[in-house]
Amino acid sequence: VVGVVRGTGQKDEASLETLAHAAKAIILQAAELEGNVAAATKGLVLGAIASAREMDVDSARAASRAAQGALEGAEKAGFATVERVLGTLKESIGGGKVALSKPPPK
Q: Mind spelling out the 3-state secondary structure of the chain?
């Protein structure tokens, strides 16, 4: 995630859009390859927090957008992946809870 943000050189909202898109793609690919979606989700959020300063955004906002992107990727992958991602996001990541910008699917 840090490399994606640095590579684009984007800041503010544009960087958050790139971050969310990357998170969506990573989770979808992890699910398709039967990878550890929970670890990928946690890594994406931690990467977003670490990249926040470079993106000129608040770390909580960056974490939220990464989480939302991860959830969107999970929705494309299926119910089981959504459950894994949501379960991971209920845990403390990087010392705090991550708020989703949109409510999770029902």
A: CHHHHHHHCCCHHHHHHHHHHHHHHHHHHHHHCCCCHHHHHHHHHHHHHHHHHHHCCCHHHHHHHHHHHHHHHHHHHCHHHHHHHHHHHHCCECCECCCCCCCCCC
pLDDT beyond 80 at 103: no
pLDDT (0 to 100) of residue 4: 73
In this structure, are residues 40 and 29 in contact, taking their beta carbons and an 8 Å threshold? no
Residue 7 has pLDDT above 90, yes or no: no
